[in-house]
Amino acid sequence: MTSYLTSKTSSRQFRRAIERGIMEREVNISSVLLLVFLPILRISANVEVDALYIFKTNMEDPNNVLQSWDPTFANPCTWFHVTCNLNNSVSRVDLANAALSGQLVPQLGLLKSLLYLELHHNNISGQIPFELGSLSSLVSLDLYQNSLTGPIPDTFSRLSKLRILRLNNNNLTGVIPMSLTNLPSLQVLDLSSNRLSGRVPDNGSFLRFTPLSFANNLDLYGPVAGCPCADSLPFSPPPPLPLPIFSQG
Hints:
The longest helix has about 45 residues, at about 1-45. The chain has helices spanning about 1-45, 45-55; strands spanning about 60, 80-85, 90-95, 100-105, 115-120, 125, 140, 145-150, 165, 170-175, 190, 195-200, 220. The protein is α/β, with parallel strands linked by helices. The strands form two sheets. It has a seven-stranded mixed β-sheet. A six-stranded mixed β-sheet has the order 2-3-5-7-9-11, with no helix packed on it. The chain is built from two helices and 13 strands, in the order ααβββββββββββββ. Residues about 30-45 and about 230-249 have low confidence and may be disordered. The radius of gyration is 31 Å and the shape is elongated.
């Protein structure tokens, strides 16, 4: 009888051990799945939070102006230097004179409701991401007084609502994309003090601008640039007037 009870007790303990092991394994599996999918769930929760947080992680921020940019927030509308519209979508990013250094990130192109991107008077370097051409609502793009290099993205021609484009006082190189002349709303353009070269477009929206918009570049020429070249001589003097013919008599 004693051996029977002992055997029964051992069997019960064995079953409990097995059940406990199964439960622990399920808990472990659940924990692993949570760790795997939680970042995905967070990233998909708000694209704008993630885009701006990636921008933050690429910036050196000695004055901690980005300290409030917490990636766990539902949206970035309570962050300093960020303004949202009534739909809680980012409409402005104001980080001028913030002593930021680092490089722009392509994820900024995901801010589809962005109207104003103000990053001037910093020390931002590297190339301008061509993805900024996806900011279909953009009205003003101010990247002047930085250390940007490389070409002006041709994708800026998609910014049909753009009124202000100021890229002056950088180290941009290459030619000015001809497609920028198709921007119907462009009212203010400043590409001065860069290292741009080639012929300045002189049609479309560029007819509004004076040589001041293109001054102090490496080798720009053309009527709008105020610097003629061999194939563009708009400032040649008029031909001399014919000498008068005096009749004799």
